[in-house]
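$ ./design --mode recover --in tokens.txt
reading tokens...
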């Protein structure tokens, strides 16, 4: 079926047609200046903009357009100095709804056919539990994936798991030194519980790390072992990734989002490219030495003290961090995945990070004018007091517990209401509380 015109285009067409009848040819081709309005469905200020060229008083021109408008589709009134207030006729709207309903694509067509979008979303961290902060990125990202796919686009989901970095050396070393801690599970212990144990192991490891310089050194050696591909260390790391991704998948399935293990492309994926990424930036003169670290600077970015704020590509100790990895993501997605658009669905506090990464990628040529990179930001989930959502003891709220609480809330609400649902049917309604997040 042919594309159904959106109400906005319909009104634009109607005003343009009236302009054709009321104005000389060269003026009738101008933009009809239709905008949403508070006084009607839409308004057009075209009479104000064309009156002088048309050699007519503004109000008179507005009146002329009003007379020429096809009142069956769009009715109009003239107000003020010559505004046209435009209202779409109910019959028009109903016939649009009818036409859209008759089409399984709702009359939208496939405007994104032939384009590819990479959507980076969810991205929880290995060996840590998913928490309330991961809910928005997961849900908003999945929603974008579905909409873009429906519009005909080719969409590549990328779950940028936090699966690499010095913290894994620390955790693996701690695990090695505490063989008594059962994190590998056993009968009756699911992936969710295992990750829960890992999460507390991680915190214990961090405490030891902060208190014991000898452990710091052993953890450092473990990082070296991990990065140089030591089989035993890599084996434990793989187990950590496996257990965590299984637990994440359970939550994804519960939320009904599209993410699967095939979409996982964690930070470790880009490790192999970091040397090249840095070499290209240095060669282009974009990354420069600053006190032993390798940094990119920006003309328009200075901190509160007036000093330039750098993007640190390589730390003083030679290690690569979050920024280097994200430079590698953008290069990979643009060049290898041939994306036309790259969306990063990440919380608003990382806006500066992405501004710097995108700017650097443009300067070095990884992003061309044909590729759009967008940070899709969202705010912090707030608790009842208007402060960040935390548990009573001040910790972050586990996503699995939040979903359990939603289901419990629904169970109570259903218990307090008159209904005749029982058994599976009742349980289905209660479990649907989780879907209220998606
Ligand atoms: N793992 C990160 C976090 O938990 C989010 C990663 C977002 N994606 C990215 N390409 N930086 O904060």
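writing sequence...
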């Amino acid at each position: 079926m042919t594309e159904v015109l959106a109400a906005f285009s319909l009104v634009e067409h109607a005003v343009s047609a009236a302009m054709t009848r009321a104005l000389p040819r060269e003026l009738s081709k101008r933009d009809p200046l239709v905008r949403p309005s508070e006084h009607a469905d839409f308004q057009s200020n075209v009479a104000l903009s064309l009156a002088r060229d048309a050699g007519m008083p503004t109000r008179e021109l507005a009146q002329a357009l009003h007379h020429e408008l096809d009142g069956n589709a769009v009715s109009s009134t003239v107000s003020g100095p010559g505004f046209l207030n435009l209202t779409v006729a109910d019959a028009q709207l109903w016939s649009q709804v009818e036409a859209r309903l008759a089409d399984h694509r709702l009359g939208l067509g496939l405007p994104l056919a032939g384009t590819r979008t990479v959507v980076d979303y969810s991205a929880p961290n290995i060996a840590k539990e998913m928490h309330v902060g991961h809910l928005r990125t997961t849900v908003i990202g999945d929603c974008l994936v579905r909409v873009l796919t429906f519009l005909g686009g080719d969409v590549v989901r990328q779950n940028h798991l936090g699966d690499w970095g010095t913290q894994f050396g620390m955790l693996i070393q701690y695990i090695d030194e505490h063989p008594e801690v059962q994190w590998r599970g056993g009968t009756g212990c699911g992936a969710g519980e295992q990750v829960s144990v890992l999460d507390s192991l991680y915190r214990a490891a961090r405490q030891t790390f902060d208190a014991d310089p000898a452990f710091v050194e052993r953890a450092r050696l473990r990082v070296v072992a991990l990065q140089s591909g030591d089989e035993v260390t890599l084996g434990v790391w793989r187990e950590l990734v496996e257990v965590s991704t299984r637990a994440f998948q359970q939550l994804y399935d519960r939320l009904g989002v599209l993410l699967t293990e095939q979409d996982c492309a964690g930070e470790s994926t880009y490790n192999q490219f970091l040397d090249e990424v840095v070499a290209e930036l240095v060669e282009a003169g974009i990354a420069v030495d600053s006190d032993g670290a390798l940094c990119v600077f920006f003309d328009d970015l200075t901190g509160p003290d007036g000093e330039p704020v750098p993007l640190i590509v390589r730390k003083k100790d030679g290690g690569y961090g979050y920024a280097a990895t994200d430079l590698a993501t953008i290069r990979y997605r643009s060049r290898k995945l041939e994306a036309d658009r790259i969306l990063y669905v990440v919380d608003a506090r990382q806006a500066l990070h992405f501004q710097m990464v995108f700017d650097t990628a443009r300067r070095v040529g990884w992003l061309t004018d044909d590729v759009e990179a967008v940070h899709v930001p969202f705010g912090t989930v707030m608790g009842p007091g208007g402060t960040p959502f935390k548990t009573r003891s001040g910790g972050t709220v586990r996503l699995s517990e939040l979903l359990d609480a939603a289901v419990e809330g629904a169970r109570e609400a259903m218990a307090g209401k008159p209904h005749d649902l029982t058994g599976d049917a009742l349980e289905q309604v209660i479990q649907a509380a989780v879907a209220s997040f998606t």
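exit 0
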